[in-house]
Amino acid sequence: MKVTILPDGFIVKYAEEVIADLKRAVPEAEINCIPANAAGLADLADSDVVYGWLPQELLKELKNLKWLHLPSAGANNYTDTSLYANPSVVLTNSSGTFGIPIAEHVIGMMIALGRNFSLYQNAQKECMWNRDRTQAIDIFNSNVLVLGLGDIGTQVCKRLAGFSCNIIGFRRDASVPHELVNEVRPMSRLRESLPEADFVIICLPGTDETRKVLGREEFSVIKNEAIVINIGRGTIIDTDALVDALNSGKVGGAGLDVTDPEPLPPDHPLWSAANVMITPHISSLSQLNDGRRLGIFTDLLKRYVAGQQLYNIVDFSSGY
Fold first, then answer.
1. pTM metric for this prediction
2. Interior angle at CA 16, CA 12 and CA 18, nearest 5
3. What are the counts of helices (DSSP H) followed by strands (DSSP E) for the chain?
4. For residue 103, which of 7, 12, 231 has the smallest C-alpha distance?
5. According to the model, what pLDDT value does residue 299 have?
6. Regarding beta strands 143-147 and 166-171, do their DSSP bridges make them parallel or antiparallel, or are they unpaired?
7. What is the architecture of the domain spanning 99-278?
């Protein structure tokens, strides 16, 4: 069995160590490492397994490819089965790598927006002792809607537990319980639930089904003081509707690590909208991610060689 690694920055830097560790873990496999920008059909044609963001134009040519593992949690651009020469190919992702840092990013945004940190940071730059009595929002005992209860949503819920929040989780199949939330509801009940929310945390993948889940109708019923945090995909929110809701005071604030469009153009009105915090799709950053991601692939590879069931399998029909 031939395994080809298309290295990202971490593997490039520690290529020899990474390959040596993989060979020790799975001595039965022939493991090769080829820079993604140099990988051609001749290098990949006989690969059974590929780790990395495989160039899409090659997918249709790789008739021997049985399993593709993505270094990312998202599988965007790889979920169209017509792209692959082998219709039975298995696609897995690195879900489980990024939940911890993203959850910490979410809590940071909740605190920063709820405590008006930007107001005081701007005053600090002007050397002003500004004690304007703006309203502050406690996370403690608040009602939090968490949209998506995968790895990221679960990690968010773990951290919210320490704030004694009332957590309502949303997922496609609401019949599946979740031990960290007070109640699980289907996405079809989101609109009726929004008036209850102090915080709305979006942890959904970007699919046709989740496009503009939060639009003008949703912002028309949301609590005026509510804060919306989006670390899923920018397309989940109707950006124009969000800008209007922020500027009109129909929503209390927004923390956005993702936007639509992305990257956000310099002249876009979202930059100057009221009480918005924008980070450039970096919530997953952590000094520990590379080790976590490689650990997931190594464990999956050992399972694959042993003929055991894989996890983190992407459903081509749902896109995640």
1. 0.85
2. 75
3. 11, 12
4. 231
5. 96
6. parallel
7. 3-Layer(aba) Sandwich (3.40)
Are 160 and 182 contacting, i.e. CB atoms less than 8 angstroms apart? no
Helix intervals (H) in the chain = 9-13, 15-25, 41-44, 56-59, 99-114, 117-125, 151-160, 190-193, 216-221, 239-248, 289-305
Tell me if residue 258 falls in helix, strand or coil.
Answer: coil
Instruction: Give the CA angle between residues 86, 47, 45 to the nearest 5°.
Output: 75
Q: Which residues in the chain come in under a pLDDT of 50?
A: none
Residue 237, CA distances (Å) to 215, 222, 265, 290, 320 in order: 6, 14, 17, 30, 19
CA-based Rg of the chain, rounded to a whole angstrom?
Answer: 22
For residue 238, give every residue at least 6 positions away whose Cβ sits within 8 Å of its Cβ, in sequence order, or none: 212, 214, 215, 216
User: What angle is formed at CA 78 by the lines to CA 202 and CA 36, rounded to 5 degrees?
Assistant: 110
| Distances in whole angstroms, Cα of residue 60 to Cα of each of 3, 6, 42, 52 | 18, 17, 14, 16
Give me the sign of the Cα torsion angle 36, 96, 259, 319. Answer: positive
- Structure confidence at residue 11 (pLDDT): 72
Look at residues 5, 50, 3, 48 and name the one whose alpha carbon lies nearest to residue 27.
Answer: 3
Q: What are the residue ranges spanned by the domains of the chain?
A: 2-97+287-305, 99-278
What pairs with residue 184 in β-bridges?
Answer: 169
Q: Do domains 2-97+287-305 and 99-278 have the same CATH topology?
A: yes
* Helix, strand and coil percent figures for the chain, each rounded to 5: 35, 15, 50
2-97+287-305 has CATH 3.30.830.10 classification: no
* Residues designated as active site: 233, 262, 281
Q: Which two tokens stand for residue 182?
A: 């007070």
- Residue 53: CB atoms within 10 A of its CB come to 15
Cβ contact 94:71 at 8 Å? yes
